[in-house]
Amino acid sequence: MSTQPEKKSRFSRKPKDPDNPGRISQFKTLFQVSVKHNPKIPLWMAGAFLVVFLIFTFGLHLIFSSFIYTGILGVMFGLLAAVIVFGRLAERAAYGALEGQAGGTGAALQGLKRGWTYEQEPVAAEAGRARRMSELSNAAMVFRAVGKPGVVLIGEGPTGAARKLLESERKRVARVAGPEVPVHVLRVGSGDDTTKLGDLTKTMKKFDAKLTDAEVQAVTKRLRALGAAKPPIPKGMDPRNAPRMDRKALRGR
């Protein structure tokens, strides 16, 4: 008795890939995580929906004289407003969750758009006396990004160690990049001379453009060829494991 392989129906659903959740699942997870950090997010979303709904429903009624038509428009634009508000608040919540975490700068740099290249791991690091994973918050790190404004070095960690690493890396980059390439130095934190993690990418975008796209690529290649001068971090400590934000999910896509 011959057995033939069972034919698959063209209408049969593909099995779900556990490593690649759908957009709805990602949005749901992002919503739950964001609400944990900011329980008022549902109230802000409801308020945005209600305000826009009322404006479109009763405001446009004076023009179209149809509550059905304006009501449909009100629902559509109200939902859009709620999603936009959620995206903004979820982004703030994500940055808030990264505050004070080792490697948080690398995750925040993902907010940079086209025209920037950045390293996902620190180009310089000093763990100090840290010997366990729980002590990684005491490690000083320097991250690097290159764009039209030049080279931007961002330090995180203890003030003294971070400043020392930043100055050492600044001199090192200046020797390789050349005097015509600006080198900006920032330090993330909550002090007077620091930049908040949530404002990091905004601050970087405010720098004046000095380089062309071709020059940005050339400088990036030079610096990557230079390699990284980072002291060893205790075993088991990997700043690349810092949580990363899903930019598409934040935009509701």
Automatic annotation (TrEMBL):
Disordered: annotated segments: 1-21, 228-253
Matches recorded under Pfam families: DUF4191
Bilayer-crossing regions: 41-61, 67-86
Coiled coil: none
InterPro entries according to UniProt: DUF4191
Name this protein carries in UniProt: DUF4191 domain-containing protein
Extent of Basic and acidic residues compositional bias: 1-20, 237-253
Keywords: Membrane, Transmembrane, Transmembrane helix
Protein species of origin: Flexivirga oryzae
